[in-house]
Amino acid sequence: MFSHPRLVRAADNLVREQFCVSPGESVLLTADSSVERELVDAVVQAVLRQGGKPLVALAPSLPFQGGLSDPYVGDSLAAAVVASDVWLDFCFPYHAGSRIHNAAMEARRCRYGLIAISRADSLARLYGGVEFSTLLDFNIGFMEFVSEHAGETARFTCAAGTDVSFVLDKVKLKRPRSMRAPGMDTVPGAQSLYPTKDSVRGRIVIQALFDETYRRLRKPIVIEADGHITRVHGEAPEDAASFERALRRASGENTLGTFVHFTYGFHPAARLTGDQFVEDIRLPGSNAIGMGLPWWESGGGENHPDGIVLDQSLWIGDLQIVDQGRFVGPAPLRALHDAMLRRLD
Q1: Could you report the per-residue pLDDT of 254-272, keeping only the tens digit for each?
Q2: Which of 130, 214, 220, 332 makes a 20 to 30 Å CA pair with 280?
Q3: Rounded to the nearest 10 degrees, how much is the dihedral formed by the CA atoms of 284, 175, 208, 290?
C-alpha cells in the first residue's frame, strides 16, 4: 500500500509547515470512526519524518461539538491533550470549545489544529492541491485587509436570494504563518468576517447546513435577520426540527439567537463534497454563516450551527471584493489570489 504523492505532500505541509513539529515532540491525533485509515497513516508518517512521537486516539463520533460534547469524552483523552505539544483534531464534530480543549489551551503547551477532515482525498486537496506558501500569502493578506476595514459595512448577496449587511468587527482569531507557540489554528483557505453585535440585517438563503449533522439541503432555508434571527422558513420537513433545536441550544437563551461569523472561502483546490464540511466552506465563493452565542462571550463555544451560502458576491464599504464567487478585490490582493494555482501532481 502506498500513498499518492499529493497526500504525502499534504501531510508534510500540515505537520512540518503549519504546525512545525520538531524532533521529540509529542503529537496527538484524535480521530473518530469516520476518519479514513489512509489519512491517519499519512499524517503519522509525516510526524515520524519530523522526529515527532505520534499517538492516535480513536473514539466513536461525537454527537455534538464543543462544550456539548463534554459528557461523551473520557478522562484518558483529557489527560492526553494537556500532555501534548501538538494536537491535530480530525474529529467531526470536533473538540474545539470543549472542556478538554479549554484545558489544553490553558496549560499553554499545546498547539491545537482544528482539522475536522475524515477523507484522505479531501486532506490531499486542501493541503497538497495548491502551493502551500501561496495559499498562506493570500490568506494572511486578505485577513489583514479585513482587519484594516473593521467598522465598515459589509454586504453579501447570492443568486438564491441572499442580501444581508452588517458592520465588520475586528478579526477575533488571527492566523499565523506557522504555529510555533501554544494556541489554536485551522485549515487555511477561508477567512472569517465577524459582525458587530446586533448589526446583521437582511435575508440569508443557505444551501447546506451543519446542525446535528452536515448535509446538502433538499430545499434552501431562508433566515431573516434584524439584529438577531427573527424568522426561519422554507426548510424541508426533515430539516426543521434539528435546525431549530440547534439554534435554540446555541443561543444560550432558548431563542433563535444571533450570528457568530460569516466567511469567504477561496481555496483553489476545494471541491463541493456534500460530506466534508471543512472543505465545502473553503470552496471559492462560499460563505459559512455561524449562528449562536459567540465563543468570546460568556457561555459561548464552538457549538453553533453553520449554514452555507454558495457563489456569494461580497462588498466591504463601497469596494466589491467577490463577484458571484470570483475574487475581484484590489490589485495587490488580486496578484496574491491569482498566484494560488491548483496542483494536480
Answers
A1: 789 999 999 999 999 999 9
A2: 332
A3: -140
